[in-house]
Amino acid sequence: MEENTVLYKIENKICTIILNRERVMNAINKDLLTNLKKVLEDLRFNDDARVIVITGSGDKAFCSGADLKERITLSEQQVKQFIFEIRTNLSAIANYPKPIIAAINGLALGGGTELALACDIRVASNNAKMGLTETKLAIIPGGGGTQRLPRLIGYGKAKELIFTGRMVDAEEALQIGLVNKITSSENLLTEVYKMAEMICQNGPIAVEQAKKAVNRGCEVDLETGLAFESEAYQSCIPTKDRVEGLKAFSEKRKPEYQGH
């Protein structure tokens, strides 16, 4: 088993998770997947971490997708199990209670793009390249890419990219709505942390409920979505943070939200 395939640190309520397999472009193998899952489980109830940032080690790759050298050693049954684990873990990221920002610091292909798609917000360096390239290997995206990409950028464009396996650079990714923002490589984490800090200033329960309302509402009709929104709002009403927000407004000071 490899050591330290996933690193993390917490500063100022922001947890930075680093995929730490730089020598293989941060490719996803079984160890990395297991360790990423464990780190996120450990952080779920850690009040010191309000926003999660996921990035890759080095300056060349966010995540180059599945580790194909490992993949070729797996039996058909093991491949099925691995794909199931990837899909399950990325769905857990998409539904994670805390907001997750992907800091895409270079190449993000296949499962790397699928990981970014599972995050709430994507910020890319100007040297980033993204793509669901699986059809070039006679397979299809298996970690949610065929479902999340069209929901994000539209069916026509998603089909084009998936069918051709074409990569897009940072400018095109921004143009088609695949990423929220692009920045220089040296300023990537600075810009991501600015965004994360803005989120951290807000009520953590409210952010969690807003994420839940958006995620659930996007998959249903408007009336049902509004019901989800109402349910999420109701969860905010009895919180001490809501009262603190009103008091801080009346006292013309910054609120101090505690997450309860």
Which class do the helix and strand fractions yield? alpha/beta
Order of helices and strands: EEHEEHHEEHEEHHEHEHHHH
Biggest sheet statistics: 6 strands, mixed
Number of strands: 10
Largest beta sheet: strand ordering? 1-2-3-5-7-10
- Overall pLDDT level: 94
Total number of helices: 11
Q: Extract low-pLDDT stretches.
A: none
Structural shape: globular
Give the distance, in angstroms, between the N- and C-terminal Cα atoms.
40 Å
Strand residues, percent: 15-25%
Helix content range of the residues, please?
40-55%
Oligomer: single chain
C-alpha-based Rg, rounded? 19 Å
Question: What's a quick, concise take on this entry?
Answer:
With 260 residues, the protein is of the alpha/beta class. The chain has helices at 30-43, 68-71, 76-94, 111-118, 145-153, 155-164, 170-175, 188-200, 204-217, 222-236, 240-250; strands at 6-11, 14-19, 51-56, 61-63, 100-104, 107-109, 121-125, 129-131, 168-169, 181-183.
Describe the structure in your own words.
By secondary structure, the protein is α/β, with parallel strands linked by helices. The longest helix is centred in the N-terminal third of the chain and has 19 residues, at 76-94. It has eleven helices and ten strands. The model has no long low-confidence stretch (mean pLDDT 94). A hairpin with a 2-residue loop joins β1 (6-11) and β2 (14-19). A six-stranded mixed beta sheet has the order 1-2-3-5-7-10. Strands 4-6-8-9 form a four-stranded mixed beta sheet.
